[in-house]
Write a structure and sequence with these properties.
Pfam families (chain A): AAA_3, AAA_lid_2
Distance between the termini of chain B: 32 Å
Helix content of chain A: 40-55%
Shape of chain B: elongated
Largest interface: A-B, 32 and 32 residues
CATH architecture of the largest domain in chain A: 3-Layer(aba) Sandwich
Structural class of chain B: alpha+beta
Protein name (chain A): ATPase
GO molecular function, one term (chain A): ATP hydrolysis activity
Number of domains of chain A: 2
CATH topology of the largest domain in chain A: Rossmann fold
Number of strands of chain B: 15
Oligomer: heterodimer
Order of helices and strands of chain A: HHEHEHEEEHEEEHEHHHEHHEHH
Organism (chain A): Amnibacterium flavum
InterPro entries (chain A): ATPase_AAA-3 (IPR011703), CbbQ/NirQ/NorQ/GpvN (IPR050764), ChlI/MoxR_AAA_lid (IPR041628), P-loop_NTPase (IPR027417)
Chain lengths: ~325, ~750
């Protein structure tokens, strides 16, 4: 399944084009942009966790636009129904048949804004279709388009009027990132450029759905050496016996970390995974899947920060393979 | 899977490791017990090193950064050493003065002298204690610093293990094994405790490998040590020849075989002939041990050495000359004075301390050992003629009965040989000459090592029997054999033990230097009218008296009559003898205390061992067939040695770390990135272990730039104690060199 070398040599260029396009919108956040693209190529879903107004939605939109796929956006509210997400069968008087009206989830890129404001039932409807990549309504099944990616944004759990995602649901996101505030220079640039128009309008597609499919296909063929495999497993297994954790990383996270690492290698123009890929992705991929103990949470840091710190500690304790 | 424990135990000050390090060194240092008498030195070393290590541990609680704890330990050690060994010289009990410096100088010099003169086990002395306490404490500080500050417990473990094993080369004993075992237990405890600290650095496997290597090294060292070690061990160690009790003849052999030649004394004489300096005599051959004839002191006080009695048996018509000999003794203590026979008076600093024995005319000390210093002996040089000796009447009177006694069950070969070689002689003197000529004949070979095969060093009749059979031995055998034979023939005889004349000084022909290798034994036979007369049956040693050679010429003109070499050539003669094919001990043996001299070499080797290991590893990685990945390992280790990198870093991280802290010119920087890419592909890519032509020149440039970017002390540390050695245990040398092997 090794990718065509010629294709591989082109793909990084494609990937960097996408990154460049996103960066015109989200200045000063190259890691977030790269992470979003990585997750897309790894066929995962991304959860962006941050306070309102730091550009979560903008990042999602920019990615969607630059990849040229269909985009839909769901603003989650407490009264949103599952059928609003998945779609509904409507009786057509003319044809005297039930006709399926696709919901918002039928798009290459679904932006789920403030997913934690929706009721658990609606949340699970989205999450189910994320995992299955299909929608079942009234006993019939409709496949979702390829590529398919959900970028959900979430306000920090401590905020009012939110339903925190259960652990099992969070596990279905490949990675969690937080945007963070832009630095002074980036914010000043933003302030000036937004005077005239929103830069999102100027983003042009640099790749189409077929191009993304090719990237996804190529990422699957990226070589993962046994040394890096062992390194990856060592990190996962260390979380399971870690004294500061109630819950370690799941086997699903092993697969997701490996997939993400392959995608990252591809974006970097390599046909093999480095330990660095695994290390760089460990926190985004693993932090939201583990549960720190109460004692370790008692130090005043938030849950996600504590988790990130623990994962960093695990990385420090595991020797990087030398061969 | 190492569990990170940072969250629970953020500090891990390593108090337990410090304690284990201290116990390790103290256990290991107990091995010196085989070399030094008593245990006082150990307690002093224990006190000083405990205080030093405690100081380091206490300071570390507050200031963790090296070298502050180590400096604290050094200061504490110095204070404690001075308090123990130079208390009276300290002003206000704490401030060192000029006297303190002088005292320390004295302690060190006296220790060196002590080591030089003493034999194993060395008697306790404050200088020796000082050096041992200081040395052991220094090792304790090094071990503690390595184990706790540098987090290199395996490297630290090498020191005490070497300490425990080292004395084994000098003396092998059963207690050694116990000490090594105990040391090992503490070493393992130290490594285990280190592993319990946060971010462990040493796998237990590495510790076990080190331990096993150390033990095997030690055992191999013991079994391949020169046989001489066994010899000295079998006789219970090398004791002073003329100490109270014990058998001087047994010890004499040890001293002769000892590789180290120690000055014993020097003398200037007015005699025209070389002087034999007699120390003790042995006349009782019936006991289990042949002990020196004890000093007959009754009545007290009357026998002061400033005037000796008349020479027993010396008649007026024998030619004699008055001889004066000034002896300068090198020993700190004597129980017997080395003096020529027969002495008439001794001028010595405290003559009251010394008394003469009426029959043997030896001079012994009244109480414990006494410093002899410089003393003048007036003696007679007796020159009897062969006729005078031949005409001596039989002296089997009751007074001489003790000089004729022999046990009943002596081996038959002695009597048979005596009868055979004296068959033609009836006169006592001629018989004695016959014996001397027989023993000096070409059949007999001087050999200091042979008696070992004959169960010990010649003080039993079985040994004499074996000697007559094998015809190999040294002065003790020749002297005791002639004595026994003379007694069988009814000639009163005894064994004299002392020094042969020694080597004539080049600048002053009347002066001679005598060393421990000049220790000698010879027979004295009694002839009425002449008295006790010296014979020299040992070939190649001493000088043959004129009265025996002249007679030999007259009686047996065909036999060898060449006069024996003068003392100036005796050393050369000795060389010839010890150079014989069967004699290996005198030249190969690091017996006795000479291992002390090897100690600095050993310590140097130990200190340089990490550096040498590191250099060898570097060469392996740059070998012709090595892969780019192995070369990258070398870059990584060099960066780690210089404190630029952590042990666990991916190529990408390492390159970033180097770029961040080393100023590289563009060429080097580009090379680094290119090299990094090659390494990554080699290690993690799909087609691995392709030998790539190494950019050796680029690598060397890069390494040089890295070294230049660091202060000198980092560079020295990187060379002497490369941190990467400790790390490599983690990934295992096999794993590290797998790439090299695969490329071959």
């Amino acid at each position: 399944m090794a990718p065509d070398p010629q294709l591989v040599s082109d793909l990084p260029q494609t990937a960097s084009n996408v990154l460049a396009a996103i960066t015109t919108v989200i200045d000063g956040k190259p890691e977030a942009a790269a992470m979003a693209l990585t997750v897309m190529i790894a066929e995962g879903h991304l959860l962006i966790e941050d306070v309102p107004g730091v550009g979560k939605t903008m990042l999602a939109k920019a990615l969607a636009r630059s990849t040229g796929g269909s985009v839909s956006r769901i603003q989650f509210t407490p009264d949103l129904l599952p059928s609003d997400v998945t779609g509904v069968s409507v009786y057509d008087q003319g044809s005297r048949q039930f006709e399926f009206k696709p919901g918002a989830v039928f798009a290459n890129l679904v932006i789920g804004d403030e997913i934690n404001r929706a009721s658990p039932k609606t949340q699970s409807a989205l999450l189910e279709s994320m995992e299955e990549r299909q929608v079942s309504v009234d006993g019939r099944t409709w496949a979702l388009p390829t590529p398919f990616m959900v970028i959900a944004t979430q306000n920090p759990i401590e905020m009012d009027g939110t339903y925190a995602l259960p652990e099992a649901q969070r596990d279905r996101f490949m990675a969690t990132i937080s945007m963070g505030y832009p630095d002074e220079r980036a914010e000043l640039a933003m302030l000036r450029s937004r005077e005239q128009s929103s830069p999102i309008d100027s983003v042009q597609p640099v790749v189409d759905a077929e191009g993304i499919k090719a990237l996804i296909q190529a990422a699957r063929g990226v070589f993962l050496s046994s040394a890096v495999e062992r390194y990856l497993l060592a990190i996962i297994r260390a979380t399971r016996s870690h004294p500061s954790l109630r819950l370690g990383a799941s086997p699903r996270s092993t697969l997701q970390l490996a997939r993400a690492a392959r995608a990252r290698a591809l974006i970097d123009g390599r046909d093999f995974v480095l330990p660095d890929d695994v290390a760089a992705l460990a926190v985004p991929v693993l932090a939201h899947r583990i549960l720190p103990t109460r004692e370790s949470l008692g130090r005043g840091l938030g849950e996600s920060q504590t988790s990130a710190e623990i994962i960093t500690g695990v990385l420090d304790s595991i020797p990087v393979p030398r061969d | 899977m190492p569990k990170p424990r940072r969250a629970r135990r953020p500090q891990g000050s390593g108090l337990a490791v410090s304690a284990a390090a201290l116990l390790t060194v103290l256990a290991a240092s107990a091995s010196f017990g085989t070399l030094v008498e008593g245990s006082g030195w150990w307690w002093k070393a224990a006190i000083v090193s405990t205080v030093a290590v405690a100081a380091a541990a206490a300071v570390r609680l507050r200031w963790r950064a090296w070298p502050i704890p180590t400096l604290a330990a050094l200061v504490a050690a110095v204070v404690m050493l001075l308090a123990l060994f130079a208390q009276q010289t300290l002003a206000l009990g704490i401030i060192p003065t000029a006297d303190t410096v002088e005292q320390v100088r004295y302690l060190i010099l006296s220790a060196v002298e002590h080591i030089r003169v003493e034999s194993i086990p060395a008697a306790e002395a404050s200088g020796l204690d000082f050096i041992l306490a200081g040395g052991i404490t220094a090792v304790a500080i090094v071990v503690e610093s390595l184990a706790v500050s540098a987090r290199a417990p395996v490297l630290a473990a090498l020191w005490p293990l070497a300490l425990a094993v080292a004395p084994g080369r000098a003396v092998s004993s059963e207690s050694e094994l116990g000490i090594i075992t105990l040391t090992l237990v503490f070493v393992l405890a130290m490594i285990w405790l280190d592993r319990r600290r946060d971010a462990p650095r040493t796998p237990l496997v590495a510790a076990v490998i080190v331990a096993v290597l150390a033990i095997f090294g030690g055992l191999i060292g013991q079994t391949t040590a020169p046989a001489v070690s066994d010899a000295s061990a079998s006789t219970g160690g090398l004791l002073p020849v003329f100490a109270s009790g014990g058998d001087p003849l047994v010890r004499l052999g040890d001293h002769l075989r000892r590789g180290l030649d120690v000055p014993a004394l020097s003398y200037t004489t007015t005699s025209d002939q070389p002087v034999y300096l007699r120390v003790v005599t042995i006349d009782d051959l019936t006991g289990e041990d042949w002990e020196a004839t004890p000093l007959d002191e009754s009545p007290q006080g009357a026998r002061t050495v400033d005037e000796f009695p008349a020479v027993p048996g010396l008649a007026g018509d024998v030619t004699r000359a008055e001889v004066s000999t000034v002896v300068e003794d090198a020993f700190a203590e004597r129980r017997w004075l080395p003096i020529p026979y027969p002495a008439t008076s001794v001028e010595i600093e405290s003559p009251g301390q010394w008394a003469w024995d009426p029959e043997s005319l030896t001079a012994g000390v009244r109480r414990d050992g006494q410093y002899a210093g410089v003393y003048t002996v007036n003696s007679l040089q007796i020159e009897p003629t062969a006729e005078q000796l031949r005409s001596a009447p039989s002296s089997d009177s009751v007074a001489f009965q003790r000089y004729l006694e022999l046990p009943d069950d002596i081996p038959a070969i002695i009597g048979e040989t005596t009868a055979e070689i004296t068959a033609d002689e009836v006169n006592g003197y001629d018989q004695a000459i016959a014996i001397q000529n027989y023993l000096r004949g070409s059949d007999f070979r001087y050999d200091e090592s042979t008696p070992e095969q004959a169960d010990g060093d010649g003080d039993s009749f079985d040994v004499i029997g074996a000697f007559l059979d094998q015809k190999r031995g040294y002065c003790v055998h020749f002297a005791s054999t002639m004595t026994v034979m003379a007694r069988q023939l009814g000639i009163p005889a005894r064994i004299a033990v002392g020094y042969q004349p020694g080597e004539r000084q080049i600048l002053d022909p009347t002066s001679y230097d005598v060393t421990s290798h000049d220790l000698h034994a010879w027979p004295e036979l009694y002839f009425e009218g002449v008295g006790w007369t010296r014979f020299e049956p040992t070939p190649g040693r001493g000088s043959v008296p004129d009265y025996t050679t002249a007679a030999a010429a007259a009686a047996q003109p065909t036999e060898e009559t060449a006069p024996e070499p003068t003392p100036t050539t005796s050393a050369a003669a000795r060389e010839e003898n010890v150079g014989g094919p069967t004699d290996t001990s005198a030249t190969t043996g690091f017996t006795g205390l000479s291992w002390w001299l090897l100690l600095p070499v050993g310590v140097l080797a130990l200190v340089l061992a990490p550096a040498i290991t590191r250099i060898m590893r570097r060469r392996a990685r740059f070998a012709r067939s090595a892969t780019v990945s192995a070369a990258w390992d070398e870059l990584h280790d060099s960066a780690e040695d210089l404190g630029l990198a952590r042990p666990s870093m991916s190529p990408r991280e390492l390159a970033a770390a180097i770029e961040a802290s080393v100023e590289l010119d563009p060429g080097d920087a580009a090379a680094l990135i290119r090299w990094r890419g090659l390494t990554e592909r080699d290690r993690f890519g799909q087609s691995r272990d392709i030998p790539i032509d190494l950019p050796r020149g680029e690598i060397r440039d890069l390494l040089r730039a890295m070294r230049r970017s660091r202060p000198v002390r980092f560079r020295v540390l990187a060379w002497l104690l490369p941190r990467s050695l400790a790390t490599s245990w983690r990934t295992g040398p096999g794993a590290r060199f797998a790439a090299v092997d695969a490329a071959r």
